[in-house]
Queue: 4 jobs
Job 1
Amino acid sequence: MSGSSASAPHAVTYSYLGPVGTFTWAALRQVPEAAGQVWRSVNNVGEALDDVVTGRSIGAVIAIENSVEGGVSATQDALANIPGLRITGEYLVPVDFVLVARPGTTLADVRVIAAHPVAYAQCHLWLDARLPEHEHLPATSNVSAAAQLLADNPIADAAVAPPGIEKEHAVAVLAEHIGDNPNAVTRFVLVTSSTTIPPRTGADKTSVIVELPTDQPGALVEMLEQFATRGVNLSLLESRPIGDELGRYRFVIDLDGHVLDERVADALLGLKRFSPKVLFLGSYPRADKVAVTVTSRYDDEVFIDARDWLRGLISGEPDEP
C-alpha cells in the first residue's frame, strides 16, 4: 500500500499497523514526508520496528499512549529493548468505535466480539452494559477484527472497529460511538533509525527511558528532582518491569522541552550521573504545537550565565559583587 503509488520513483517505505483504515494508518496520513511513498502494513509493533532496524522501512508509525488507557506497554517495552531507534515526530488521532457484524446479524445474536485489546479496553463499559455475557476474541488490529467476520467460518459474531469500516468491508454497523470516553485520543510516534535530532521549535517534547540505580527509599524522588530543580515539566511518567527480577523497574518519561534547551540538557546530565542507564529516545515537535513556557529563572540565559560565572571562578577572574 502507498500514500500515492507503490511504484513511485525513488520511493521509500514507512511501516504501520495495518491494514488500511486503522488508526495507525490515519496517523501515518499526518506524516508529510510519507506522502507519495510506500506504506507497508504490518501486524504488530515488533514487526514495524524490525522493519526500521533492518532498513526495510525508513520509519514506522506506532501507538505509544492513549488518553484513556495510558501508555501502550508493547511499544514502551520494544523501545526500551531495541537499540538505535529515535522518535522524530508525534501525531494525535481522535478515537471512536463502532460495533459491526455480518449483514443480517442483530445485537441479540452477538456472543463473541473480536477486538484489538486496546480498543476493547476503551469500549468494555459499553459492551458490559449491553452485552453482559459476551466473550472477547483478541485481534491484531481494529480493521482485521472486522475483516475476519467475513471469513468462511468466523469465530466472532461481531467486532469493534473504526468508523467507516463498512466502506472497506461488507459489514453492517450494529452500534455507533461505543467508546467509553467520547474525548479519547491516541498518540502515535514516528520512529526512525536516524540520529539527527529535529530542530527545536519552542513547542517540543523529549522522551527518555530511565532505570533507578538501586531499589531504596527516596530513589524515585531523587530521579524526579533532576527535573524539578531545573523547571522541567513531565507530561508522562510510567513504570515498566525490566524483567530480570521482581521489583526492578524502568521509567518511561516524556518531558516538555528540547534537548537543546539549557534546562533540559542540564536535567539530562543530572539524570545520567544519577542513573546506570538512560536511553534517549529523541526530541521532537509536539503534535498539539503548544509552546512550552517556563519561568524566567529557567531561561537558557540563566544556565549560560551560571556556567560562565563558574568558568570565570576557575580561571581566576574576580567575582563581581
Note: The chain has nine helices and 15 strands.
Job 2
Amino acid sequence: MTKIDLNADLGESWYGNTIGNDADLMPLLDSCNVACGFHGGDAITMRQTIELALEHGVAIGAHPSFPDRKNFGRKTMEIPSPDLFALMLYQISALKGMTEGLGGSVHHVKPHGALYHYLNGSISGAEAFVRAAAKSNIPIVYGPPTGQLRVMTEFHGLEFWPEGFADRAYEPSLHLRSRQKDGACLNDTTMAVEQVRLLQSGKVRATDGEIYPIKVKTVCLHGDHPGAAARALAIRQLLNT
C-alpha cells in the first residue's frame, strides 16, 4: 500500500454563506486547499482557515478558480492566457501573503472546479497557471495524474503530486464522471473508503465496474459535500492503519 496524503477543499464560505464544516474536517487532513475569494472564500474566512490549518499542522495550499462565484467555479470560462496568468497570480498572492503574515507558508497550489479540468486539456492555460505558481515560489502543484497540467508543472521544474478523489466516480477513461450525470459523487462513506483503499494500491474501479491502474500521491475529499466530516474520519482511520 502506498502512503497517501489526504486533502480537502476548505475555506469556501463567504459573507455569511456557510459552506462545509471546516472545523471538523481540518484535524483529519494532511493538507488543505484554501479558496482564494473567486469561487468562494473572503478575507475573514481565509484568515480563519489558515489559522485552523496552522493550529492542526495541516499543509496549506492555494485553491484559485475562474472568477465565477455565481456557479461556484464549476463553469468553464474562456480567458486569454495573459489574463488567466494575472487572475491566478492575484489569487495565489492573496493566500500566500495572508499565510505568511500569520506565520505559515504555502505548501502547494491546486486549481478548483472547472479550472482543474480546463487546465488539464489546455497547454496555454496550464502554462499560465504553472507560471503563476512558479513566480509565487510555490513548489508543488496538485492535479490529475496525466495531462497538460502535469506536463507544464514538470517542464517548469516544480514538483507534481498526482491526485485522486475519494468522493467522485471515475469513468473508464479515468476522467471524473460529469457532475451533470447520476452517480458522479460518492456520498456513501463505505464506497468512499473502498475507493481510497483501491487508490492506495494503485487502482480504481470505474463506472463500468472494471478496475484500472492509477497512481496518486494525494486524495481529495470535497469539503462542501454533505457528510464530508464523517467520510473524512473513516478515511483517516483507514490511512492510519
Note: The mean pLDDT is 96.
Job 3
Amino acid sequence: MKIVGISGSNVGSKTRTAMDYTLKLANEKYPDAEITLLDLAEYEMVFSDGRNYWEYEGDTKYVTETIMAADAIIIGTPVFQASIPATLKNIFDLLPVNAFRDKVVSIVVTAGTAKHYLMVEQQLKPILAYMKAHIVQTYVFIEEKDFHRKEIINDDIIFRMERLVEDTVLLVRAYSDIRQAKDAEYDF
C-alpha cells in the first residue's frame, strides 16, 4: 500500500509538524506500507498551464506522479484567508479530474481559530469529491493553541491522528476488496 502525505503549503511550520506526527504514526502502525511525504515547501512547482501531469518536468512531474501512484493520500493544509493555500490548489489544478478515483483521501488541517473548520466542508471536500476521492469524513483539525514550540501538546489531537490513519488504511483495504469482488464477477 502506498500512502502519500502532502504538506500543502510552502510557508510556515505547523502543517509540516502535523504531517510529521501523522506519518510517524502511520509508519509505526503499518510498517509494511510505503509512506512518502511531499512537503510542497521543498519542491519547485510550476503553475498549471493545462498540460497533462506527465508532460511536466522536474519537481512538478515527480510530485504529480507520486500522488497519482498512491493508494491513499493524507492532505495536510493550513487555512489561509479562510481558504486553502495556492500551492495546494495548484496541485489540484495540475492533476486530471479523475485523479483521486479509487484513492482514499484524508485531511489534517491547521488553523488559527476554530471558525476556519468550514473551509474543509465548503471548499476542500467538494474539490476532492469532484476529483472522485473516497474521502475519510472525519478529519483532524488543529488550532494554534494545540501547538507549543513546534510540538503538538494536545493528546486528543494525537488520538485523532491515530484514528485518522487507521480509518484511512481500513478504507483503502475495504475499497480494494470491493473492487476485487466486482472484478471477479466478469468471466474474462
Note: Strands lie at 2-7, 34-39, 72-78, 104-111, 134-135, 140-143, 147-148, 151-152.
Job 4
Amino acid sequence: MTTRSTADLLATIAEDVSEMASVAHSLDALTSELDLTHADQNKIRDLQRVDALFQHLDDVSVLLRKMSAMIGSGPDLDTGALSNAIRLDYLKSRLTENTTVAMAPAVSGDVNLF
C-alpha cells in the first residue's frame, strides 16, 4: 500500500484545480473574441457560466492550499484506493506517483463549439 500525507495530496489537487482554472480563464478570454451576432441568446448566456467556472476553480484551489497548510502533515492516505475512485490516468499518476506529470496536449482538429 502506497500512502501520502493528506497535506501533500491536498496541495497536489490544488495545483491541478489551479491548472483547470487557467484553462477556464483562457476559454473565457476566447469567448469575448467570438462573433456571436447570430448565435442563440440562450447559448450566449450559457457562455457566461465559463466566468463562474474559473472563479469557482480559483477559489477551490485557494481553499485546498489553505487546508493543506492548516492540516499539518495530516494522516497518511492510501493512494491506491484514492486512484481507484477516479477515471483520469493523468490524475491517478499525480496522486500515486507524487511527481509532476504533464497533461496530455490538446489534439488539434476541427472545433465545434455549438
Note: Residues 41-70 form the longest helix (30 residues).
